[in-house]
Amino acid sequence: MAVVGEVGRLGCEASVMKRMHGRSGAYTPSGSKGIAHEIMANDWANLNNLLKPDTVTWLTKSSNAPQVDAVTMKGGKVLERIQYKDTTSPSGVQKTVKQVASGKYR
């Protein structure tokens, strides 16, 4: 089971790295973790919507869009716009909360 789990993890990581190709910031140490986070969050959202085949979350075409990283669609209708943030420090979280409160990410 451990070997199967490790092979699955490696396959998932390879898939994420392949999909990072061409995204803005994907080749820098600070940017790559954010792009990987966006892709994995999209995968998680789509996994949660597995029983809703008409609902899918996509990364936006523009990899450096200032306010929207991903869009969840149902049929042809936008259900939500998502701005991912991978902040882990208390100061980073506070900065993001202030930006949201000021209306930067509507």
Task: Report the sheet-strand fraction.
Answer: 15-25%
Mean pLDDT: 87
What order do the SSEs take from the amino end to the carboxyl end, as H and E? Answer: HHEEEH
First-last Cα distance: 44 Å
Number of H- or I-type helical stretches:
3
Helix content: 40-55%
Count of distinct strands: 3
Task: Report the structural category.
Answer: alpha+beta
Biggest sheet descriptor: 3 strands, antiparallel
Rg over CA atoms, rounded to whole Å, is 16 Å
What characteristic shape results from the CA principal axes?
globular
Low-confidence parts: none
Biggest sheet, spatial arrangement of strands = 1-2-3
Task: Describe this entry's structure for a reader.
Helix content is 48%, strand content 15%. Helix 1 packs across helix 2. The mean pLDDT is 87. Strands 1-2-3 form a three-stranded antiparallel sheet. The protein is built from three helices and three strands; from the N terminus they run ααβββα. The chain is an alpha+beta fold. The longest helix has 20 residues. It starts with a helix and ends in a 5-residue tail after the last helix. Strand 2 and strand 3 form a beta hairpin.
